[in-house]
Structure formats: C-alpha cells, structure tokens
C-alpha cells in the first residue's frame, strides 16, 4: 500500500500551516535500514507487508481508528475484542463493535470465549456476508474480572480446554485464518506460553502472537523479548509475532533482530501516534525514516481522527470518544496543562478547531520525549483465579458461564 505524503493527509480545514514532511532520519530512534531481512507475513491467504499488526485495544481500535492507522501504511488492523457469548445472544454493543467499514480489508476481528460450542457458533455468525476474513482469539486479557472466572490469560493453564476451544474455532472458521494472542503466563511460576503456542500450531492456527509479559505484570516493567525467541524456537511451522515495548520503529526492527520473530504487534505505541505505522513501513523497507512531526501535523491528525469518529458514531458520541485520545496526541509536546485540559473537554468539532488553532504549529517534539510510553502503566498485581483452578491443568471441564460474561471491548 502506498503511503501518502503529509500534505496529502492534511485536512482541508488546516490552511496556511507549515506541517510535517519527511526529513532526515533521527539517529536516536530511527535507523535507515532494517536490522534483518524477513519475508512478508503470511496469515492464511493474507500477505501482510510490512509485517505489522495493530493490537486489539478496548475503546481504541474501532473502525475509525483502524482506518486512520491504515492510511499511514499497510498491515493488519484488528478490531476491539468481541465476546463470543454476547455476539451469539445479540448484545447490541457487541454487534456495534463487530461492524466493519465498507472498504475495510482484510476484515480482522478479535474474539474472546471459553466455551468451544459458543466460540464455534460466534465464528459462524461472524463469517456471514461481508464478515470477518481473519479471527484472532484472545487468551491474554489480564484484568481481574476476566481471570477470576478462569478466562483470558488464565485459560491457557487449562491445556485440554484450551485445545478444545482452539480446535472448535479453527473448524468453524474453515478457510478463514484463526490466530491466537496470549501472554507468557499467569506469573513467573505459571508460564504457559510454550504450551499455548504448540497447541495453536497443532490445531491449525495460522499464526501466534505473544505479549511478552505475564498477567501479573500487567503493563509494568519490561517485556521479555527472550521469551519471544523461545516461542519462535518452539513453534516452527507458522508465523510467530512479538508484542511489547514497541514505541518507535527502531524497536520493531530490534525485536525482530533479537528474537527472529516473523512480525510485530503494536499496541500502546500507536496511541496518539498513528503515524508510527508510516514509520514502520519505512523501517522495514529500509527507507530513511521521517523526522518527528511538529505540532501542526499532530493537530491535523487529531482533527482527522475526530472527524472520522463523528462520521461513524454521530457528533455527540464521536466527540466524547475522541477526548481520551487528546492526551496521547500531546504526550511529550510542551503545551502546558491548561491546553491539555481544554482539549480533553472539547464539546464539538468547532470547539476542537478553536483549540487546535491556538497551538503553535511549529512546536517540535523534544528529543527526550521520543518513544515515551503511553497508555496503561499499572502493575504488577497478583492474578485472581477460581478456587483450586491451578490444581489440574488437564481438566477439560468447561468454565462457568460467568467466564464469558465480560462485556465486549474489554
């Protein structure tokens, strides 16, 4: 996919402002050639180049955000998590989350479930006319309301049940590729990632992806890239993708170099930075990376994002949804707390225009702010699982209905 220039992406409202254009590479974070040579990522019939996947993120990776990221560079862009039982039961919010834009391809959706029959029925419904072309199974959610019933990052502890869920999903999907995303395990005493990867491979999944933290870590500390290398050594017939601590394009190249993984999954790194996908496309192609955008280009992207949300959800819901993104967009830029607070409270597109017009468009991102983490930072936190859950990993008994009661989106 061709990546448009900054000028081509600039909304018509941003007139007379000098905005970001590709410039010299920044040696601190943006090498000019890939750290290693890897082929395009193959997910079933889908060739993904650059080998980059947008991670599902609750309340973020809706259709407008996926479109915004896709405009920056090719890749695979996964929806927010959809709960299998809620989908089967016709939950209104779930059906809304499962919508794709008319021009979206491949149509990629993440599905959460713990019961083989329910997950199979949900997939059959997702594959209808103009339905999903890729299904990603969530076995990595670390939040208490999920793990305390045995779901999410806890489910891989139950190896036989995990196998039955994955097998049911792959069979129901037919020719549509199924992938799985998971964490290292519950904690350092209960690591499940190698078993999970091998089970997915055995049961016909098209790829596996691992967030290289345990559920106990949540989003704290450093991702364990060495574990990604271990997974790659154990799972040899399908692609292995790495996830964790990719804040700039150079991080992705270094992950591939260190681990040998076949591609990367980007989550928090693109919050307020959808142009990271542009940078990744350049990096994997060995092209010189652009300098960081000045504040005028950031403002233009913010306005574009807000407009997409309004067009998709309507004005009230779209503006309300946009507010949480403003802090991520401005992260690291010296604009002051009052400006941040005002943008986080915008009530309309006109209000947003006035606030953005007051910014100094020539403001640079300070070098020391490049690659600052964004999004969740909490952890570590003990993982809560059902009573006696850890005693028999080979118990195939389905989990309680409460394990699938989580609301879609997270």
Précis, in short:
The protein is built from 15 helices and twelve strands. It has 410 residues and is of the alpha/beta class.
The low-confidence parts are 1-35
Overall pLDDT score: 90
| Strand-residue proportion | 5-15%
- Please tell me the CATH architecture of the largest domain by its name: Alpha-Beta Barrel
State the CATH class of the largest domain.
Alpha Beta
What would the CATH topology of the largest domain be? TIM Barrel
Q: Cα distance, first to last residue?
A: 31 Å
Kindly report the spatial arrangement of strands forming the biggest sheet. 3-4-5-6-7-10-11-12
Helix share, percent = 25-40%
Principal-axis shape equals globular
* Radius of gyration, taken over Cα atoms and rounded to an integer in Å: 21 Å
Q: What count of domains describes the coordinates?
A: 2
Instruction: Write the element-wise H/E pattern from the N-terminal end onward.
Output: HEEEHEHHEHEHHEEEHEHEHEHHHHH
Structural class: alpha/beta
The count of strands amounts to 12
User: For the record, what is the CATH homologous superfamily label of the largest domain?
Assistant: Aldolase class I
Largest sheet: 8 strands, parallel, barrel
């Amino acid at each position: 996919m061709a990546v448009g220039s900054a000028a081509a992406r600039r909304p018509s409202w941003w007139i007379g402002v000098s905005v970001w254009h590709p410039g010299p590479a920044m040696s601190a974070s943006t090498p000019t050639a890939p750290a290693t040579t890897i082929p395009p990522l193959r997910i079933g019939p889908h060739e993904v180049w650059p080998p980059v996947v947008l991670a599902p993120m609750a309340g973020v990776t809706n259709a407008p955000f996926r479109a915004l990221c896709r405009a920056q560079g090719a890749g695979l862009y996964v929806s927010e998590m959809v709960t299998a039982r809620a989908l089967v039961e016709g939950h209104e919010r779930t059906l809304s989350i499962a919508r794709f834009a008319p021009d979206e391809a491949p149509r990629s959706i993440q599905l959460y479930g713990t019961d083989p029959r329910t997950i199979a029925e949900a997939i059959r419904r997702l594959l209808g006319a103009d339905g999903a072309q890729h299904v990603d199974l969530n076995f990595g959610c670390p939040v208490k309301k999920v793990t305390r019933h045995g779901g999410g990052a806890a489910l891989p502890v139950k190896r036989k049940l995990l196998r039955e869920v994955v097998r049911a999903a792959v069979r129901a999907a037919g020719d549509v590729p199924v992938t799985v995303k998971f964490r290292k395990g519950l904690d350092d005493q209960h690591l499940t990632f190698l078993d999970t990867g091998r089970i997915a491979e055995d049961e016909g999944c098209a790829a596996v992806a691992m967030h290289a933290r345990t559920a106990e870590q949540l989003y704290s500390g450093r991702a364990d890239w060495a574990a990604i290398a271990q997974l790659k050594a154990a799972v040899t017939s399908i692609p292995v993708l790495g996830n964790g601590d990719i804040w700039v394009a150079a991080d992705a190249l270094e992950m591939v170099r260190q681990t040998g993984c076949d591609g990367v999954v980007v989550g928090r790194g693109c919050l307020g930075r959808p142009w990271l996908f542009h940078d990744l496309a350049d990096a994997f192609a060995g092209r010189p990376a652009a300098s960081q955008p000045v504040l005028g280009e950031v403002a233009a992207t913010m306005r574009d994002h807000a407009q997409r949300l309004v067009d998709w959800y309507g004005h009230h819901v779209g503006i309300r949804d946009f507010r949480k993104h403003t802090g991520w967009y401005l992260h690291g830029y010296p604009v002051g707390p009052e400006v941040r607070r005002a943008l986080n409270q915008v009530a309309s597109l006109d209000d947003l225009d006035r606030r953005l017009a007051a910014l100094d468009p020539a403001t640079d991102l300070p070098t020391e702010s490049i690659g600052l983490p964004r999004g969740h930072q909490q952890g570590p936190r003990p993982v809560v699982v059902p009573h006696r859950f850890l005693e028999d990993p080979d118990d195939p008994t389905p989990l309680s209905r409460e394990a699938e009661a989580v609301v879609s989106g997270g």
